[in-house]
């Protein structure tokens, strides 16, 4: 069973696309190698850093190498590249493909390769990825806006199933621990009900996930109990914006792909989720998403669940802006006018938004306001906090943000540090808050 709720995953997407001239093949190989070397260097550095102070903590770095678009790179070259770069860090199951996921102890300090099993000659005469370069280029400046394109960022450029037979060399195929596929050209519910002999990874676009969550929510959750689900942004997010990740998480998706350069509310939410478990990079999936009832029923996020817990949040005051910002950053001729917004992100019935009053002309605003949030599924929500500076004539200025897993909140009075738009912690800015559970 897949008990990981989320884990850090390095992804190399489209090293080069549609190379058709032999003279460019070597350049393509070098680019792919360079990208992999950069990733491994970072992994090795992180491994060394963590080993000195978290020797007993189990951690995983799943790495997915996407070289399928480099049409002239042969599978033997890929095999050589993978073995040379990753060495004994690469996890290769003895059976050639995982029948079930091993324990975290077995995977400690290992790289897991997950991609589509290669076809004979890598389909050199195939040209089935035209959709990768023909999607419409439309403006996309927000985190959450209507989705209307069909461009795919899936692992699989055709309609092959997870159990496809391949004429590929067995040495390279054996390195692929988790076979990948997508729902393209297939009935979505049929894919979710797939009963494979091997553990697999399914990729869905954000549109496909929304459809699946609306029509087949329990099938999605049941699928993620034994397999890995990856959700990726729509192709027209040309400005590197992101979609709301919580819809994937509450349905058990272990991998929600992000544009890490797309700063905004969605990325802040992701930062908050991965503060769980000491920020080590992975954490256990909540039991509510893993349980199977006596009648084979599983959790359904849309059901009207009863309130199980109540979270009370008191926002006392904030301070530190005068130390981290210039005196004219917010208002040229007067101190700032701060207010705080609080969000609960989780199942639809738990989601809520509250706001404090505006405190005018004060670098250390004192609110002393209490907010109550009834929680139906308290294992899943995130508490997102954002401070804004009120502006009568223009858009309110950003004053800091943070996001915290509700399940890891410690009751009592806390000095909560705030972060900038890129997720970097401010040196001095804090909110004094109190958390209580009833």
3D structure, described in words:
It is a peripheral membrane protein. 19% of the residues lie in helices and 25% in strands. The protein has helices spanning 25-51, 75-86, 170-175, 188-192, 206-215, 217-224, 246-249, 265-273, 321-324; strands at residues 4-7, 9-12, 61-65, 111-115, 178-182, 200-205, 228-232, 255-256, 282-284, 309-319, 338-345, 352-355, 366-375, 382-389, 397-405, 412-419, 425-437. The strands form 4 sheets. It has a 7-stranded parallel β-sheet. Strand 4, helix 3 (170-175) and strand 5 (178-182) form a beta-alpha-beta unit. Helix 1 (25-51) runs parallel beside helix 2 and helix 5 (206-215) packs across helix 6 (217-224). The two termini are 33 Å apart. The model is unreliable at 13-33, 52-73, 120-152 and 156-160 (pLDDT under 50).
Strand content: 25-35%
Radius of gyration, whole Å: 24 Å
The coarse silhouette is globular
Termini separation? 33 Å
Counting H and I runs of at least 4 residues, what is the number of helices?
A: 9
Helix % is 10-25%
Name the quaternary structure: single chain
SSE succession: EEHEHEHEHEHHEHEHEEHEEEEEEE
From the helix content, strand content and strand pairing, which structural class follows?
alpha/beta
Total beta strands: 17
Low-confidence stretches: 13-33, 52-73, 120-152, 156-160
Biased composition (Acidic residues): 141-160
Keywords: Cell membrane, Hydrolase, Lipid degradation, Lipid metabolism, Membrane, Transducer
Cofactor: Ca(2+)
Domain C2: 291-420
């Amino acid at each position: 069973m897949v008990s990981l709720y989320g884990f850090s995953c390095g992804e190399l997407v489209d090293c080069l696309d549609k190379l058709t001239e032999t003279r460019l093949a070597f350049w393509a190989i070098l680019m792919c190698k360079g990208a992999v070397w950069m990733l491994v260097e970072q992994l090795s550095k992180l491994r060394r850093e963590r080993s000195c102070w978290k020797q007993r903590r189990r951690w995983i770095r799943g790495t997915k190498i996407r070289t399928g678009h480099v049409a002239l790179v042969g599978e033997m070259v890929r095999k050589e590249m993978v073995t040379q770069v990753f060495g004994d860090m690469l996890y290769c199951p003895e059976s050639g493909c995982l029948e079930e996921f091993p324990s975290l102890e077995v995977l400690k300090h290992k790289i897991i390769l997950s991609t589509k099993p290669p076809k004979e000659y890598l389909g050199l005469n195939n040209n089935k990825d035209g959709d990768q370069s023909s999607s419409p280029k439309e403006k996309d400046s927000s985190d959450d806006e209507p989705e209307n394109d069909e461009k795919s960022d899936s692992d699989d450029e055709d309609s092959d199933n997870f159990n496809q037979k391949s004429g590929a060399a067995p040495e390279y195929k054996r390195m692929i621990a988790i076979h990948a596929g997508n729902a393209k050209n297939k009935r979505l519910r049929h894919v979710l009900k797939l009963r494979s002999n091997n553990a697999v990874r399914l990729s869905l676009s954000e549109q496909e996930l929304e459809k699946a969550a609306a029509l087949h929510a329990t099938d999605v959750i049941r699928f993620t109990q034994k397999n890995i689900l990856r959700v990726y942004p729509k192709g027209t997010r040309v400005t590197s914006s992101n979609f709301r990740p919580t819809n994937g998480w509450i349905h058990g998706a272990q991998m929600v792909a992000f544009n890490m350069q797309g700063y905004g509310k969605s990325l802040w939410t992701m930062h908050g989720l991965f503060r769980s478990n000491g920020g080590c990079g992975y954490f256990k999936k909540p039991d509510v998403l893993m349980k199977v009832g006596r009648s084979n029923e599983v959790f359904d996020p849309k059901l009207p669940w009863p309130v199980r817990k109540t979270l009370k949040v008191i926002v006392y005051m904030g301070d530190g802006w005068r130390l981290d910002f210039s005196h004219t950053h917010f208002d040229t001729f007067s101190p700032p006018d701060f207010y705080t917004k609080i969000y609960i992100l989780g199942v639809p019935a738990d989601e809520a938004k509250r706001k404090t009053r505006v405190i005018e002309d004060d670098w250390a605003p004192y609110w002393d306001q209490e907010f109550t949030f009834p929680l139906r599924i308290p294992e899943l929500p995130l508490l997102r906090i954002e401070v804004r500076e009120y502006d009568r004539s223009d858009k309110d200025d950003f004053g800091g943000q943070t996001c915290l897993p509700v399940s890891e909140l410690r009751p009592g009075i806390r000095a909560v540090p705030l972060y900038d738009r890129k997720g970097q912690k401010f040196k001095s800015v804090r909110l004094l808050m109190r958390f209580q559970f009833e």
